[in-house]
Here is the input.
Amino acid sequence: MAKCAICNKTQSVGNKLSITRSHISKRSSRTWKPNLRSVKAEIDGEVKRIHVCAKCLKNGKVKRA
Here is the structure.
C-alpha cells in the first residue's frame, strides 16, 4: 500500500451509502486513496524519487531536485 513519504497519509476506509440514505442496510464499504505523485526530491543532500501527496507538494514541504 502506497503512502506519502512526508506526512504518512495512507488510504482510509468508510461506508458508501445509497442514494436515498433512508435504508441503513444499503451500505457497502469503500476506500479513499491519497493523491500521490512520484517526484525527485532532495533528501539529506542526495536526490531520491519518493511518493508525495499533492497537499505536501502544494504546501512546499518538499524541496524538488
User: Anything to note?
Assistant: The CA atoms of residues 9 and 52 lie 9 Å apart. The chain has a mean pLDDT of 89.
